[in-house]
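the two lines:
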Amino acid sequence: MSIYILPLLFIFILVFCLYKKVNCYDTFVIGAKKSIPLVVDIFPYITAIMIAVSLLRYSGITNILAEFVSPVFNLLGIPSELIELVLLRPFTGSGSYAILNNVLLQYGADSYISRCACVILGCSETIFYVTTIYISQTKIKRLLYAIPVALFCSIFGSVLACALCKIL
Amino acid sequence: MVLASICFLFWTDPSSVLSQMLGASKEALTLSIELCAVYAVWLGILELVEASGLNRKLAKILSPVIRKIFNVKDSETESLIAMNISANMLGLGNASTPLAIKAIKKMDTGSEVASFPIIMLIVINATSIQLLPTTVISLRQAAGSLSPADIILPTLITTFCTTLLAIFLVKLLSKKFCGGKK
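prediction for all of em together
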């Protein structure tokens, strides 16, 4: 059923645009044009994260870290291959796409691990980045329970994601 | 992190440091080009969504729910929040951030401690409420998946649950914190 979702969505949007008399071609081009500056903006971050992850992996530090964390991850049902993704996700958006891409290529796009990674990424946010930007124009310094709640929910989401990927 | 890895490699395999870094950078470039194609498609579609007013339609549908969750009386703030959340649901990240900043400025009391609606807005945004994980699906497609869209259902369920949990926890904790102060 899921293969129909995207085509249906596109049809719906285009029909709605026709109904609203939006100039589809010109509008699409305006949006598509934004992709180049966006990628130019995020390329340095992706590179930095990729270099860091690659060095961490090659040096074997990830393995050492994985050994420490994996009992906790096992307990929660999260595959230990996803440690980097889960730990870095709250800090970097483009970086976590880089990590996701590594996972997809390494384990195959349709493997259980890759599907978990996709769902985890799809249902989480760069918590620290969002928070910093949102309060940047106010005097707020104390967020009370905001960050702990967000982090807790995010971990809960990862656990649920891995559990759901097993049955769905 | 990087320093530790390089120091580590200094002892084990010094010749590999630069080649690893260059290899990673090359991968980053490939990924960026791939992402550029992905974003071109989705940003184009999202521009259509914005131009046709679909996101404002969604915001209208959401606003009664938002009134219940946030307890804001000011209708302008309420519509800002509704627009922010609907933009996020559709994956219009660039459109949603300025809306959220505006809404938070409206709700700002000038104090250093965040108030209940501000915390609620931040937490809801930070737990992600995206309905369609566009970039994830596209990357999966590019990596050769046979059915890249089959992660939509688990993602939706998870997002729904985490957001509900977040709203519940914020409501619960706000009562506790206020109760302690007064």
